[in-house]
Design a protein that fits this description.
Elements (H helix, E strand, L loop, with lengths): L49 H15 L20 E2 L1 H9 L4 E4 L3 H6 L6 E2 L3 E3 L5 E3 L3 H8 L7 E4 L6 H10 L5 E4 L2 H7 L7
Parallel strand pairs: 1-7, 2-3, 2-6, 6-7
Antiparallel strand pairs: 4-5
């Protein structure tokens, strides 16, 4: 009796042309929008202040980094032009002439390793167990204790420009009308040979 040889041919299943795939969103799944926050997802009600939304978005993003200790080497872009910012050179002139306070929002250990002379340190994120970072829920109250004059000129800096913008927005929403983010953070400060203490 002759034997039959069967050959198995893999077949890729594809959707027929002309039928568009539908995306369904249940009422339990929040829709994400990406415009207002410079690429950060927003899942909060519209009546919350902009600074609160940025704080929550930043916390969600930092939580997703897990136990990453080092910050990325490239600063993120914030296409939103509502973040009041200042170039490192102009910030240096103001600080050196004692016309503005320098607020460093990096972690305490980063501040201890290197900082600008006369700078105040209020971390935007705190170091937690196992090298993780968590939001500093007392950020604004600590700033108010150190810098009670809300009309004072304040330059806010982090290392590369990730923590400075949301910290500046939070301060602005708390009434610090003359708080400005240093574009590029401490790296931009050092790039133009402005002094630091190690």
């Amino acid at each position: 009796m002759p034997t039959l040889a069967l050959r198995v041919v893999p077949v890729a299943l594809r959707q027929p042309r002309g039928i568009a795939r539908r995306r369904s969103h249940s009422k339990l799944t929040p829709r994400l929008s990406f415009g207002e926050l410079g690429g950060l997802p927003r899942t909060t009600p519209r009546d919350e202040s902009r600074a609160e939304v940025l704080v929550q978005a930043r916390e969600m993003r930092n939580a997703s980094f897990g136990n990453v200790r080092e910050a990325p080497t490239v600063a993120p872009s914030f296409p939103n032009q509502d973040i009041p910012s200042i170039e490192a050179e102009e910030a240096g002139k103001l600080v050196m002439a004692a016309k503005a306070a320098f607020l460093d929002v990096r972690t305490s250990s980063a501040f201890a390793a290197e900082h600008v002379a006369g700078a105040f340190n209020v971390p935007w994120l705190l170091e937690a167990d196992a090298g993780k970072l968590k939001a500093n829920e007392q950020f604004l109250s600590e700033v108010e204790q150190i810098l009670p004059d809300k009309d004072q000129d304040i330059v806010v800096a982090c290392q590369i420009g990730m923590r400075g913008p949301p910290a500046t927005l939070a301060m602005r929403s708390a009434g610090y009308t003359n708080a400005y983010n240093v574009k590029g953070g401490l790296n931009a400060w050092k790039a133009i040979n402005l002094p630091t203490i190690k």
